[in-house]
Amino acid sequence: MRFVVSTFCAAVLGAFLFQLPVSASDPLGPAFSSDPQLEQGYRLLYQQQFPQAREIFQNWVDQHPTEPFGQVSLAATYLFQEFFLQNVLTSDYFLNDKRFLGGIQGTPDPGRVKGFEDSCAHARQLAFQRLKVQPRDPEGLYALTLCAGMQSDADSMLLKKHYDALKHLKEANANAEMLLHDHPDAFDAYVAPGIAYYVIGSLPSSARFVLWFGGIHGDKQLGMYEVQKTADDGHYLKPFAKILLALSARREKKNALALKNLKDLIDEFPGNRVYMTEYAKAMGWPIPATLEAPTARQLDSGDPSTSPH
User: Fold this and answer.
1) Whole-model pTM?
2) Would you give the end-to-end CA distance of the chain in angstroms?
3) Which of 4, 149, 155, 245 could form a disulfide with 11 if both were Cys (CB 3.0 to 4.6 A apart)?
4) Host domain of residue 199
């Protein structure tokens, strides 16, 4: 039996602060505050300008070599680029049960997989170094959780290593549940357990029964509710949550919810091919030839002709 149990990173992606409550006077690290350079990188990421986003994140890493969030962000560029080229964050994937529950057709690019895995490994190393000094370090826990979420996505959807995906899923969800208990306003954190609940809730009953004995539970309604929290009030992961919510809504035939979130994405990222195409599909419109996706070579080269205007 092949199935995907995915957190979509965080990820896709992640839990945030540490277990004990944090006072308002405590300083916030880059993962929990607004950094102009990171904001620019994530905006490029959601516009599918992956080489440009990667360059900005690498510059940020060079300036902040001990911060694990930079490496997490680099890992996200590789994962999101592969998701884009494999059409993962589209209705073609979400509305096809064989793909949604079984993973991509074919194999991912080995170079991007290596870049992703190397960045995750470096982020984990930096996170563990911080946690040795402060066992509840928020940046360290955040990075570990995002890495686990993204690795679960890659294992299940791209590499089809479902057992490894489950291990990473449990790691990410355990941290998310623990940390959100104390910090329910860390809205980006809801997307990881939320999409996991949704995907698991979409599995056949026999698969859900097996996972239930392993301590992994699914609930589609709860999952969409938690993704909605990030879509409404999240930060770096807000656009990611919006596309996930829109595609999940398409699966559940909640077209008004799908259209609302797709329209929000189009307004924020005008000219984005993915969001415009998904909006047209949800409306039942024909897809214009001008919305055809760029090739992998164009994306890798950073050809500006492939970028949204």
Assistant:
1) 0.82
2) 44
3) 149
4) 32-254
